[in-house]
């Protein structure tokens, strides 16, 4: 009995519900970091209020008036709408639901590919854990389920089957939505294109063999028309056209290329750098690659070319950047589960026990109701997961700054900049996490000041900086230098954040 036909009575269904419920709870427990969330909420508010997408920067004083592309404008509007409707709990819940759906769909596709939960469930659980440093709230939140749907729709073709055809023809309008949500829209074309390349290669090999055996030219080329190649060719073209349905048209592609080649982003943002095996998530990622080597060697079923092309593409992406691991985390269960297809009927046969089955399902459905962003503060949980924001969110310091807006231009920690854009918009920031907006020279200057280099005061004076909001963890040398400097006065200090001003 296949995974799809097993229905709610199967253990496969129970495992699917468990993955969704556990994923929702785990992501709900992750506080919101300041970096790529708060400035998006402010942007969404400005778009709603002004009825247009801003074309120049108005949040910083160092780049005020500079041209900027806000590609993820619709994601910003949705984050603002969620925050306005239900505050941070609603935002965190939406993010948790998105990640849960992402892995729920990935599990469903893997279960369908294998016909059993025995490999699909643990493989999906590993994928969930290896991506845990990619659960932050940002416009990518809304792209995750879309990517999983693209995989689920195209994977039958990668395995040489025709299933999910109705779902596949929803992919072009899905791509049109995705291109306005987040720059990862290119992954829709990447998945379809990788499957197309694999199937084209397989069909070309069939043609070559047929020609060697003396088949007619018409019969040979009919191999392409009959198979998945023709459908994938049309689908690729339609998706490519759909990605032009955005305010900048083909400029959306130029934006992605510029972002992926932006020197400051590659140099200063950890998530753009390769994963490290010394971290828990990086260790799981590299362990999964090693596991794949042995799985392919001992597989009951050999993967088709299209499966290998998709796997190679996303494994390679994961090796280049931590940010890409979450996409690989959805591909990995599909590949691994498909290496061990449906076991024998004897292996699958299990007695259905209605009461324990119903109790298990009810417990799993109730779990997210018990542990969620609205309830976790009342549960006996450590503060680092019970809080809605991370400790590096300068809530109290921003409130102090709001009450004391006077003073010279502000130098701030980059993560603080994102929160200040939302909480204290009347005080423009020095930098924030819109990394591509600021030139490399400014980031080098920021690093020199944060590290309290010998000339940090001269750099601040050259910019006319009158106040510094610094982080005692990320900018420890600067905080120590300002506290010891008689020319500066610490006006605010909560142990994590200081605000210092030049003495008159």
Describe the model.
With 504 residues, this protein is mainly alpha-helical. It is built from 24 helices and four strands. The chain has a four-stranded mixed beta sheet with strand order 1-2-4-3. A hairpin with a 3-residue loop joins strand 3 (488-493) and strand 4 (497-502). The chain is globular.
Core attributes:
2 domains; four-stranded mixed β-sheet; 24 helices; globular
Residue ranges: pLDDT <50 for 5 or more in a row? 1-6, 344-348
Distance between the termini: 80 Å
Number of domains: 2
Tell me roughly what share of residues is in helical segments. Answer: 55-70%
Order of helices and strands: HHHHHHHHHHHHHHHHHHHHEHHHEHEE
Which radius of gyration do the C-alpha atoms yield?
26 Å
Q: What is the β-strand count?
A: 4
- Structural class label: mainly alpha
Question: What summary fits the major beta sheet?
Answer: 4 strands, mixed
| Strands side by side in the biggest sheet | 1-2-4-3
Approximate strand percentage? under 5%
């Amino acid at each position: 009995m296949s995974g799809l036909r097993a229905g709610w009575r199967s253990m496969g269904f129970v495992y699917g519900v468990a993955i969704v419920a556990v994923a929702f709870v785990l992501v709900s427990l992750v506080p919101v970091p300041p970096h790529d969330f708060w400035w998006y909420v402010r942007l969404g508010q400005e778009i709603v209020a002004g009825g247009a997408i801003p074309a120049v920067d108005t949040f910083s004083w160092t780049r005020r008036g500079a041209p900027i592309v806000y590609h993820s404008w619709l994601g910003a509007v949705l984050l603002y709408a969620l925050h306005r409707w239900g505050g941070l709990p609603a935002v965190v819940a939406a993010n948790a639901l998105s990640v849960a759906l992402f892995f729920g769909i990935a599990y469903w596709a893997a279960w369908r590919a294998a016909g059993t939960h025995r490999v699909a469930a643990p493989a999906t659980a590993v994928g969930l854990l290896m991506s845990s440093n990619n659960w932050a709230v940002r416009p990518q939140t809304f792209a995750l389920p879309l990517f999983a749907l693209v995989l689920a729709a195209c994977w039958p073709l990668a395995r040489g089957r025709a299933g999910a055809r109705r779902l596949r023809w929803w992919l072009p309008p899905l791509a049109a939505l995705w291109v306005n949500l987040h720059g990862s829209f290119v992954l829709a074309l990447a998945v379809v294109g990788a499957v197309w390349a694999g199937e084209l290669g397989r069909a070309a090999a069939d043609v070559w063999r047929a020609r060697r055996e003396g088949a007619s030219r018409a019969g040979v080329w009919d191999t392409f028309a009959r198979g998945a190649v023709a459908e994938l060719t049309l689908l690729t073209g339609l998706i490519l056209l759909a990605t032009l349905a955005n305010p900048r048209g083909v400029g959306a592609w130029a934006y992605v290329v510029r972002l992926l080649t932006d020197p400051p982003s590659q140099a200063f943002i950890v998530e753009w750098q390769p994963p490290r095996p010394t971290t828990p998530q990086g260790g799981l990622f590299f362990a999964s690659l090693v596991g794949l080597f042995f799985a392919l060697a001992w597989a009951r079923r050999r993967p088709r070319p299209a499966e290998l092309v998709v796997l190679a593409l996303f494994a390679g992406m994961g090796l280049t950047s931590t940010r890409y691991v979450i996409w690989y985390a959805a591909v990995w269960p599909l590949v691994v589960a498909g290496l061990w297809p449906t076991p024998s009927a004897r292996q699958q046969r299990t007695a259905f026990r209605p009461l324990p089955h119903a109790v298990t399902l009810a417990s799993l459905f109730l779990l997210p109701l018990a542990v969620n962003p609205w309830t976790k503060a009342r549960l006996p949980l450590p503060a680092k997961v019970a809080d809605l924001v991370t400790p590096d969110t300068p809530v109290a310091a921003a409130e102090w700054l709001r009450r004391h807006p006077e003073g010279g231009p502000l130098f701030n920690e980059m993560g603080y900049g994102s929160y200040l854009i939302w909480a204290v918009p009347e005080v423009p920031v020095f930098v924030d996490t819109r990394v591509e907006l600021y030139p490399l020279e400014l980031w080098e200057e920021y690093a020199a000041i944060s590290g309290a280099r010998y000339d940090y005061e001269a750099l601040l004076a050259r910019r006319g900086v009158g106040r510094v909001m610094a982080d005692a963890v990320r900018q420890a040398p600067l905080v120590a230098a300002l506290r010891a400097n008689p020319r500066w006065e610490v006006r605010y200090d909560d142990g994590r954040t200081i605000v210092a001003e030049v003495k008159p």
